[in-house]
Amino acid sequence: MSDSSDHVPPQVWTWDQENGGQFASINRPVSGPTHEKPLPVGEHPLQLYSLATPNGQKMTILLEELLALGHKGAEYDAWLIRIGGGDQFGSGFVDVNPNSKIPALLDRNSPTPVRVFESGTILLYLAEKFGEFVPGDFAERAECLSWLF
């Protein structure tokens, strides 16, 4: 191992695109959209943009549980975001999630839509919005959130 004083970081970092490996097209060290592409919008106030990854599936499971409990306001439209094809870098998706990661939720129940991203945040948002699954007791809530995050 070399001495840490041997390394001199560059004044301006540049991205070596050839050194990205298999996931270079979906993981990139820059922000913002790479292309114009509006997101589809369905008939329900909740719009879910995701993929059937473990984190992506959690939102659908929670929304279906809320619907099973009788919460009509939990009706949603689900839209496929193909991360292997770069859908997450489209302008519409970046407007909902500036981190360009699935899942993302747009709640259009108010005059100003609420964007919610990061899976734990979406789960907590929905649980609190519908008053389900998160205990009110302070200690029980802390335990629940510890498992969530």
Describe the structure.
The protein has helices spanning 54-68, 91-96, 119-130, 138-148, and strands at 46-50, 76-80, 104-107, 114-117. With 149 residues, the protein is an alpha+beta fold. The protein has one domain (34-148): 3-Layer(aba) Sandwich (Glutaredoxin). Strands 2-1-3-4 form a 4-stranded mixed β-sheet, with helices on one face. The two termini are 36 Å apart.
The appropriate CATH architecture is 3-Layer(aba) Sandwich
CATH topology: Glutaredoxin
The percentage of residues in β strands lies in 5-15%
Helix percent reads: 25-40%
Q: What is the number of strand segments?
A: 4
Overall mean pLDDT: 91
Q: Return the structural class.
A: alpha+beta
Rg calc: 19 Å
Helix and strand arrangement:
Layout: E1 46-50, H1 54-68, E2 76-80, H2 91-96, E3 104-107, E4 114-117, H3 119-130, H4 138-148
Produce a short descriptive summary.
The chain has about 150 residues and is of the alpha+beta class. About 30% of the residues lie in helices and about 10% in strands.
